[in-house]
């Protein structure tokens, strides 16, 4: 795993500022502490920080083809590189290393832009072909590896693995994108392709960019999508057997490395399945790591210990104190833009623990999106069944009225908290799902934002992100549509972002076998009834693993990587919340209605409402302003004028 940067002159062949390239690259030293390298010629500069995983003795980057006309800077891992080397050698290509990076330059020579369709792995890279005068930038199919880019006012195109590498460019405009702020307070992260800054974008998963001198704008192309094409019917037992074989194969592929390798083990279904396959495929005990919590309500480390004992792994658990909130500013510097998933704290800790023992770790991320494991799928499908029973003309006014007037009762038993359900039933499937995943409902966001900021939005609403993906969805199946939306938004924007930044902060490579694109394609072809069966999510995944894992691992209630936010904000962080959220830092931005924000804080601290999630989002937004923009309270007022 590595860090990459690049500068390309779209207007000609001006001399690239090497010192600037070095500054950009060194902001990402943590991503690749083993080595660094540069290539600079007229009109193009590429930089690289290396975390040596395969062929550590060679494979330094930027890396060239035989005659030096093609050069690449690459972050990721091409798992089928040995097969590609054999194929490309048969076409006459000559390899100087046994590193996966080298297949990229030769694959480009052989297949051009179609080279990405031959790669099996996680990747983000920038490649320069001097003969074709072409810069080619690509990101893997699921968005496992990040890629940020922007076009500077002087016509230079810049890109990097993290947003901080672009922020090293002083001429990069810092104007905040108001639509990104709206997205953030709806989703808790900023979905692709936006970033918090107007001038910077994320390359979307499964997309490439092609640029040549004279191009005014980058040419983007989508080369892959999740197919969701139903396979021919076959007996369930056969599908279960095939699932295990495919799982074993994808885990096997992800074990290729020349350094110490282990696995994350939470005790949940996904990580336990990965560790089980690792144990079957290796001759030595698997190294596993897990995080426990001193607050037993959030702790599931005993389940991880149970799986570790079953497969005789070399297991380590580190207990996180329930008041482990000292990472707030650290997280802001890691993510470079507002990011509100509080599970980033235990994720950071487990990566920190794993790096003490291994350089590569396998993770179970992707299982919930593939097999419909989130509880929200169950609720959404139940709501959809109700929608199908009532005509829209009756459903919207009846449930709309109930949703509007039913009290918001956070304090009441769940069965009495029906307001959110009524609101969702008044909407269509996409609206209802968006409403269910939003950390702040539409009406609350409107109250939170100031009137001038709402005018800056010009009618934009965060649901447009999901609407756009739904319009391109390759399926009409209701459950598959929701999975598709998560694969396009929550997975790359939240889950994979969290894992990439937390792992790279510790120079740890994390691999995600359940997101191997061949595995994802096959799983998407399974009937949705085998993913969510009644109230049981991951149905076929669990059934196929019954001979491998015990029922108390497979069928226990899902816990997730939670932390006690509500308790923190009413206890040790009480003063921090009041001083940070009600002080000048947020007020001077002009974004927020401070009267409503004061009401939110007061109601939460008094225990009348649970605003823990939006308060955490606000705290992380404030930390972004303080740590990433490094503005004083008087300077932050400039932001409000930049929003227009």
Keywords:
644 residues, alpha+beta, Glutamine Phosphoribosylpyrophosphate, subunit 1, domain 1, Rossmann fold, 3 domains, six-stranded antiparallel β-sheet
The count of domains is 3
Q: Report the CATH superfamily of the largest domain.
A: HUPs
C-alpha geometry: globular
What's the gyration radius in Å? 24 Å
Helix fraction bin: 40-55%
Quickly give the CATH architecture of the largest domain: 3-Layer(aba) Sandwich
Largest sheet: 6 strands, antiparallel
- CATH structural fold name of the largest domain: Rossmann fold
Q: Structural class of the helices, strands and pairings?
A: alpha+beta
Kindly report the oligomeric state of this protein. Answer: single chain
Distance between the termini: 39 Å
| Proportion in β-strands | 5-15%
Count of DSSP-assigned helices:
29
Number of strands: 17
Write the layout of secondary structure elements.
Blueprint: E1 2-9, H1 18-26, E2 35-41, E3 44-50, E4 63-64, E5 70-78, H2 81-90, H3 102-111, E6 121-129, E7 134-139, E8 148-151, E9 156-160, H4 163-167, H5 178-187, E10 200-202, E11 207-211, E12 219-222, H6 236-253, E13 261-264, H7 269-281, E14 287-293, H8 301-310, E15 314-320, H9 328-335, H10 344-355, E16 360-362, H11 367-371, H12 375-389, H13 392-405, H14 419-425, H15 429-437, H16 442-448, H17 451-457, H18 463-472, H19 478-488, H20 490-504, E17 509-511, H21 517-524, H22 539-544, H23 551-554, H24 565-570, H25 574-581, H26 584-587, H27 594-605, H28 612-627, H29 637-642
Parallel strand pairs: 13-14, 13-16, 14-15, 16-17
Antiparallel strand pairs: 1-3, 1-9, 2-3, 4-5, 5-6, 6-7, 7-11, 8-9, 8-10, 11-12
